[in-house]
Amino acid sequence: GQNIDQPTEMTATEGAIVQINCTYQTSGFNGLFWYQQHAGEAPTFLSYNVLDGLEEKGRFSSFLSRSKGYSYLLLKELQMKDSASYLCAVTDSNYQLIWGAGTKLIIKP
Amino acid sequence: ETGVTQTPRHLVMGMTNKKSLKCEQHLGHNAMYWYKQSAKKPLELMFVYSLEERVENNSVPSRFSPECPNSSHLFLHLHTLQPEDSALYLCASSEETSGNYNEQFFGPGTRLTVL
Description:
The complex is a heterodimer of chains A (109) and B (115).
Chain A: E1 3-5, E2 9-13, E3 18-25, E4 32-37, E5 44-49, E6 53-57, E7 60-65, E8 70-75, E9 84-91, E10 97-99, E11 103-108
Parallel strand pairs in A: 2-11
Antiparallel strand pairs in A: 1-3, 3-8, 4-5, 4-9, 6-7, 7-8, 9-10, 9-11
Chain B: E1 4-7, E2 10-13, E3 18-25, E4 31-37, E5 44-50, E6 53-57, E7 64-70, E8 73-79, E9 87-94, E10 105-106, E11 110-114
Parallel strand pairs in B: 2-11
Antiparallel strand pairs in B: 1-3, 3-8, 4-5, 4-9, 5-6, 7-8, 9-10, 9-11
């Protein structure tokens, strides 16, 4: 079967750095997405990786290793507004998005 | 209006009621999706439409009935639901249903409670 694993919940301190991991086992791979979802709101796109390596976008970076079936989302200089759920999703060989259950990130002052 | 909108935002219904969820996208996309989101579970894809034709139906019970009258509008008709159907129902759209980079744009969802 197809599976996306990510931690259920993480806690970090304002101003610090946090890394949210995602491992996947899917039938084929055509890219990996990270979405952010604040409570009661729509998921919004954060990043996309299809080649190995690090993609940086401001305070957020996303890394991919296809050989290891592994990605992480790195958030720097954490702000209170970063408290949200972070969803990892992989596009499989049929171009269907397979979703993880999401990681709830709690930021403390 | 911009992006993807959904109405109503909240819905409470009894098991014998019939109701409909509405989704509208203002992005000129060709594909639209219905997802079910339950607490601490992955997003569950329910239906996919491409150019108003259903291309995916992931073994969803017949008490959920989708309708896509045009590429901008998507409905989910509900009847004789069960309490376990209580969840957040998300609508999304994308340019196409295939291709590597297929970013999906989501609406805010309808929080459904079945009593």
